[in-house]
Amino acid sequence: MLTLGPAEWQAFQVTFKLCFYTTLILLVLATPLAWWLAQGRSLARTVVQAIVALPLVLPPTVLGFYLLIVLGPRGFIGSTLESLGLHHLAFTFEGILIASVIYSMPFAVQPLTQAFNNLGRRPVEVASSLGAGAVDRFFSVIFPLTRGGFIVAATLTFAHTLGEFGVILMLGGSIPGETKVLSVLIYDHTEGMNYAAAHSLSLMLLLFAFITLFVVYSINRRFEVVKL
Amino acid sequence: MPLLRLLRRLSQHLNPVLFALMVLVFALPSHASAAVRIAAASDLRYALDDIIALYRAAHPNADIEVVYGSSGRMSTQILNGAPYDIFFSADIAFPERLHAAGMTATEPAVYALGRIVLWSNTLDAASLTLEDLSSDSIRRIAIAQPAHAPYGLRAQEALQATGVWEAVQSKLVFGENIAHAAQMTESGAAQVGIIALSLAKFPTLAEHGYHLIDEALHNPLTQGYVVTRRGGSKPEALAFADFMTTPEAHEVMLRYGFVLPN
């Protein structure tokens, strides 16, 4: 029943590569951002919080459309790259990676912010008074106490990137092996009335999404870090 | 009053702005659906708009709405009960499949033959040929997705017949339909696109030249239409379908570079 051709495997590879790098980049970017957001309330924090949450509200095609303009040869980033002798980022893996990082940002930042909020200031202050440096404080105190938040952030980011569609459709150009991800391939199958192929791929993604959420909720029960 | 109490409780729990929006949305009268709803292939985007404008001039009360997209998507949607009354496909194969599935009120009929062209926003496309596409100076070429967009499939056939398919394959980017491929080219992100002649003739795109691709290089783009089962019971839908066969409508189709059947 679940037969996968070369096109499917290629889309799998692109998709998982995209999910992996997006998760990696977002954990690095979102940790300091979430820490800063958890440090209190101010106008600046509220503004940043709203910007981070934008992809939850905006249609992905809006984001994809603007990214195509900005990363393309006439956009600010694309034209800068071209003038440096490099290529613009529309229709490239790097381009859809940038889009994914922006698009999945809230799914990394929000669980981490909540985990840091739950942690409170006390453990860090104690560690600080005992003479622990910033790096030591993070790896010996903050990270072990909030690791549930990190696992949830990583899992949600990965799963959300897996389901990404509109942004990549607009910006990616569905190049096999480069920007053609599973969701776009499923879309092509349904458009081409190739329902059997669409079924087997969709079923697999459905199972994967369920397992991911199951994992997230199991971790959540154990650590009670995030309200979903 | 229990309803008021419920509303008050709801409003305490919801964000007040969201609540105000909800009230506003429910208070607005909903729009009645259009009398005739058309699903049309993206290559018709400009020609059909002009034809509908002509029709409206003659029938001021006509209530017509049109949605453009890829022919494959439209047929999948109609097959699954989408509320379209007429379907103008870029390939008669799709209306024929709907006909076979018993979803249509009329026999599929040819309304035009389409042509494909090379078009560019940054290069002089008029002096380009398909062979030139394998040159290193061209990095990205946009076509519609051959898997479900007829114009994309014909572009693929033309590239294969010219013998450059292998050489250009790594440069291809795929639009969801022919209008998307044209947009990718217009943005400059793809230097060249293989798009519908009917799109290249639209004023904003017509500022740049095009190279007409020899029709011997690909199967004909036999564009067919059909009135759906839903539209069959609507005199307005059948009237508009008839209008497509009038000399006025033909004149518009010819102006956009379509070839008329017979």
From TrEMBL, chain A:
It comes from the Bacteria. It is found in: Cell inner membrane; Cell membrane. It is a multi-pass membrane protein. CDD domains: TM_PBP2. Residues 12-216 form the ABC transmembrane type-1 domain. The chain crosses the membrane at residues 20-38, 50-69, 89-109, 150-175, 195-219. PROSITE patterns: ABC_TM1. GO terms for molecular function: molybdate ion transmembrane transporter activity. SUPFAM superfamilies: MetI-like (SSF161098). InterPro entries: MetI-like, MetI-like_sf, ModB_ABC. Keywords: Cell inner membrane, Cell membrane, Membrane, Molybdenum, Transmembrane, Transmembrane helix, Transport. GO terms for cellular component: plasma membrane. Its main location: membrane. NCBIfam families: modB_ABC. This is Molybdenum transport system permease. It comes from Salinispirillum sp. LH 10-3-1. The gene is modB.
UniProtKB/TrEMBL annotation, chain B:
Molybdate binds at S71, I178. The keyword Amino-acid biosynthesis does not apply. InterPro entries: AvModA-like_subst-bd (IPR044084), ModA (IPR005950), ModA/WtpA (IPR050682). One of its GO terms (molecular function) is tungstate binding. GO terms for biological process: molybdate ion transport. Coiled coil: none annotated. CDD domains: PBP2_AvModA (cd13539). Keywords: Metal-binding, Molybdenum, Signal. Belongs to the bacterial solute-binding protein ModA family. The complex is composed of two ATP-binding proteins (ModC), two transmembrane proteins (ModB) and a solute-binding protein (ModA). This is Molybdate ABC transporter substrate-binding protein. The lineage of its organism: Bacteria, Pseudomonadati, Pseudomonadota, Gammaproteobacteria, Oceanospirillales.
